[in-house]
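Quick one: sequence plus zinc ion SMILES, need structure tokens.
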Amino acid sequence: MFKQDLKEKYPFLTEYFEQGLKNAFHPLAHSILFYGQDISAQYEFATEIARLLNCKEFKNESCRCLNCNWVREHQHPAVLTISKIDNKPSDDTSKTVISIAQARMIKNSLLNTSDYHRVFIFCDAKMDGETWIPLGLNENNFHDETANALLKIIEEPPGNTTFFFLTRDKNDLIETIISRSQSFFVPSYKQEDKNYSIIEEIFSDYPNIERKKFIDLAQALFASSKEHGSEKVLDEIQNLLAAILKSNLENNICKTKIISDIKSVELAKQMINNHINPQLAFEDMLLNITKN
Ligand SMILES: [Zn+2]
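Reply:
Sure thing.
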């Protein structure tokens, strides 16, 4: 079934999709949403599933049937990437978004029957020189009105049709797409960023930050999050705490505090994911981290 390197990296997901591909009684969902930091991995996954859905022979990694070859070469007539730079109608002049005209083109194409399993992979994309790079969908490149124009066919597509939506963060997609799709988190194995330069100064007194400073520091974090994003700011705080923890492994009192503080940062991430104002989440976190 799946390529070996995908199996090794994503044992849970590959096992799950293999079951769906093999079992006609529990087939895959018509609409599948991938989210996570590594959009290239999501794209590879979607393409592999498209290949296996269309393979008429061995359904394995080394199969060289016409369908498998076409998908590998991105030439398959029924496996289409839909982005602001891919698969646009010839009279479509939009350049920055997946357009309503593209949505209409897809809808019209589904009026005809097909011998293939049709797959539409929705993502954003850019050219870096000669290299095509997949990026995540968000409200700027995939407008609500375009998404809504697709809802009916996503909900009740003709047979043998699968939609994929690739995004970094589920919150970047309109709720009507999320609710009609089965969502899967695709973990990122890219080199982890261990930096903490953005927040180093704000946290310079750690672990002895005074309680009375917590509002000022929350404001400083909030200002920084406007520039870098709150996720990045909280990631860097965790990076800093992890670095301090590493150099304090002998000191049990310090260790307990740092581990508890790392959990407070995690909690702040969850609060922001649940649409709580970042400044409030930062204040809450700093109340836990600071000392009286
Ligand atoms: Zn094949």
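The pocket of zinc ion is lined by residues 55, 57-58, 63, 65, 67-68 (CB under 6 Å). The chain has a mean pLDDT of 92.
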